[in-house]
Amino acid sequence: MSSIWTQARRAARMNPSIIREILKVTEKPGILSMAGGLPSADTFPVDALKAACDKVLSENAKEALQYAASEGFAPLREWVAARVKALGMDVSPDQVLITSGSQQGLDLVGKILCDASAPVAVETPTYLGALQAFTPYEPSFISLASDEQGPLPEAFARLPHDAPGTRFAYLLPNYQNPTGRVMSLERRQAVMAAAKAAGVPVIEDNPYGDLWFDEPPLPSLSSMWPEGSIYLGSFSKVLTPGFRLGFIIAPKALYPKLLQAKQAADLHTPGFNQRVVYEVIKNGFLDEHVPKIRARYKANRDAMAEGLKKHLPAGCEWQSPKGGMFFWIRLPEGLDAMALLPKAVDANIAYVPGAAFYAANPDPRTMRLSFVTLTPELIAEGVAILGRVLGEALAAIPETTP
Amino acid sequence: MSSIWTQARRAARMNPSIIREILKVTEKPGILSMAGGLPSADTFPVDALKAACDKVLSENAKEALQYAASEGFAPLREWVAARVKALGMDVSPDQVLITSGSQQGLDLVGKILCDASAPVAVETPTYLGALQAFTPYEPSFISLASDEQGPLPEAFARLPHDAPGTRFAYLLPNYQNPTGRVMSLERRQAVMAAAKAAGVPVIEDNPYGDLWFDEPPLPSLSSMWPEGSIYLGSFSKVLTPGFRLGFIIAPKALYPKLLQAKQAADLHTPGFNQRVVYEVIKNGFLDEHVPKIRARYKANRDAMAEGLKKHLPAGCEWQSPKGGMFFWIRLPEGLDAMALLPKAVDANIAYVPGAAFYAANPDPRTMRLSFVTLTPELIAEGVAILGRVLGEALAAIPETTP
């Protein structure tokens, strides 16, 4: 059969998702999975969605069920433009493009900005799904030196020399996937000044920004250099991922090309879904709903922080995230999170090995734990098991000669 | 701003959709649009969808609103595999990939099969949306010589010599968009034998197959060469386009790569939409519903056929389609459908100039008329206006010296 079909060169670079394969493993009944970044299903506003489906199909069925504009549903675009004002952004609804989840935003950005071998800068580590979205467009990934606050401004200063023609830097300023880290105001300002000085525009991905625990979000990166930034947002973490609704906010000069890419990709995001979500959120629903998600996730975060402190062997390192969905653990020397995964699954828990999140030089000692899918009780149980698996693995490491 | 962003080479080949621009023009209130391929909104099964939304959100909300498998909802994939048996296809649910409309199927196919400059063969003329989906992957389009039954088998025989390495031929066997033509059984067999002999696999796009008026569909092209065919289907024309649901059926060897492309593009098609549609169709709903659409569209087809016969000036040529949504008109010498469009819009009607549907050597004398959006009465009115516009244009052509 391989003789009938000739695949594109880019197809050879696309590989099965490790996360996807892991999610399959974690379908084992009863497993305590801290792997997938699945929002707690208890937070889905089922009644509000049910009422909105009924209303849209009672009042606007013909429009909601027909083909629609590629840009998206106008009132939803207006809502988004108004909403991001809180992040210091001053954008027109004409700059908002509704996407089929923010994953599609990444695909469209890759499609219009990436050429084979042209550099694309990413954080170290970075969101695996972004690497997967950009990879088919064959960029050359540059892994920006990063610390617990995100990428270092100095790393941008080196780009014009080390990677001339870098098309963009892909950044997640809030509760980053996978590390949970957040960029301080000073870091944001320094990074954006350095990006601008280096002439490297920024793709800002902000799926977790609303999930803060103690302090509301800082101004977005895009607010600091609007004409050099594309902002990606999502309804997956504050309402439901099952509706696949996200958005792009783009400079006016780039918008038409993103719109053409969107139209070629799937004509438009389901109009029904857009109208239902707009119906739910239009009168301030999120202002009541999201605090409940925050409170729940904060309690989960606390449960995991307590469990990690109690159960993880000496030598493990982590920071307690100030929002979002993830802890990022670095294991003691001699341990390999990927190699340990089968043992963990045997012991009825799952996590994501951190190596998958690196564009280059993966650190095998890292892992990502989600604290949002399980209850605090099950988190405590899962982390206890993790502590035991790690302890046994450490004990099995042969003594090295000094 | 252009100095900040460097666009991908492929972006330069992407252009605003003429159809999209035309749809904008036709938003003029009260215009009689025969332009867009919009299914009649009166056929949308609103009550069935409302009941299904309620049922899914009452019984399976947590699953329907959560992230889901990239392959699609398993029962829906099983339904598709069973459904295409009627077209002579013997496929496993494992070969079915649910897509965000069949437009996304085209994008995914382009992504894994098209390289810059590699030939892709298309009918003359062909579906504009497919040209738009493939174009970002920079293929070199080959326009297959075609007649009123579709592409000529001889055109395939020439491909190995004229366009070696042709990645695939993109074919629409049933009530083709834009021409409305259908491939006879003999033509299907001859084309698939010729494609196989030439070593050129086939992408079969069948959004209109269920919309037959007198004779049920012939066996699919894919049934004649399963390992050399990808089949694309859609729920847009038999249920609603607003849910954006389509599917790909692929040979098992190609499926994993399409799945990776799907995951990178948008993770998965909305699980909610898949479950709602499955809930509507699982017990034979389409067997009652689609005949109603057929009867309506047949009456519309008859109204347009009668109007064209009555009102179009001598020298216009067309065939009456046996299904689908479109008439394809060829105007007398000296007329240009694109140049006439502003006059038509002034006269309160719209159509799509046929030139947009050619990969090469557009025929400016062609136009596409949809007969499914308007009622028979408005079709009669619209065609009468078209006849007047064409008559006036013909009268304005200066006499040429013999």
Automatic annotation (TrEMBL), chains A, B:
In alphabetical order, the GO MF annotations are:
transaminase activity
Q: Residue ranges of the Aminotransferase class I/classII large domain? A: 47-384
Iron: present as a keyword of the record? no
List all membrane-crossing ranges. Answer: none
* SUPFAM superfamilies noted in UniProt: PLP-dependent transferases (SSF53383)
- Highest taxon in the source lineage: Bacteria
Task: Write the record's keywords in alphabetical order, separated by commas.
Answer: Aminotransferase, Pyridoxal phosphate, Transferase
**Cofactor entry:** pyridoxal 5'-phosphate
PANTHER family, alphabetized: AMINOTRANSFERASE, KYNURENINE_ALPHA-AMINOADIPATE AMINOTRANSFERASE, MITOCHONDRIAL
Q: Per its record, how is this protein called by name?
A: PLP-dependent aminotransferase family protein
The organism of origin for this protein: Roseateles aquae
